[in-house]
Write a structure and sequence with these properties.
Length: about 170
């Protein structure tokens, strides 16, 4: 009888310890993935696609050509205003040339406007297309995201920006 009650106490101790330890792990993981969680909760419905590129022609001619997008940062400043920072890089032999371009964007769901050093560029965003797919006995209506490409001026060149609207 004594052995059985000591086993129950031991099992109760293990359950309590595992619940406390699991709570600590949950807090650690939540703090570790805090940035990703905030990004997923944000209502940021605009993404920059990786096929975005830029063509620069700086003075001197040694770094002319197409630059590949290596990183971007899209930050919501106010309800409809975003700040977009694009990092481009060109590899030529063992040399790497970097360019940084920044734009302010106003987007309300129907219209997108870019503030550039040459002025304001305004575009109407097309509505997402709907695709009807036959599955078994019924149909599925799927809304396809809109891909929108824009050519914007940058100092020393042009940016070919591909945006995905969800």
């Amino acid at each position: 009888m004594v052995k059985r009650s000591s086993n129950k106490v031991f099992i109760l101790f293990l359950l309590t310890y595992s619940l406390v330890f699991a709570g600590d792990i949950r807090d650690i993981l939540n703090s570790y993935f805090k940035e990703e969680r905030e990004q997923s909760y944000s209502d940021n419905r605009v993404l920059v696609l990786s096929k975005t590129y830029a063509e620069f022609n700086p003075i001197g001619g040694f770094a002319d050509g197409r630059y590949k997008l290596i990183n971007y940062r899209l930050e919501k400043i106010e309800p409809n205003i975003y700040f977009l920072e694009l990092d481009f890089q060109k590899k030529k032999g063992s040399f790497r040339f970097n360019q940084k371009v920044q734009y302010y964007i106003w987007y309300d769901g129907n219209v997108i406007a870019f503030k550039t050093y040459k002025g304001k560029y305004k575009y109407y965003v097309p509505k997402p297309s709907k695709k009807v797919i036959k599955r078994g006995n019924g149909y599925i209506i799927r809304e396809e995201p809109t891909v929108f490409n824009v050519v914007l001026p940058a100092r020393g060149g042009k940016v070919y920006l591909y945006l995905l609207f969800r």
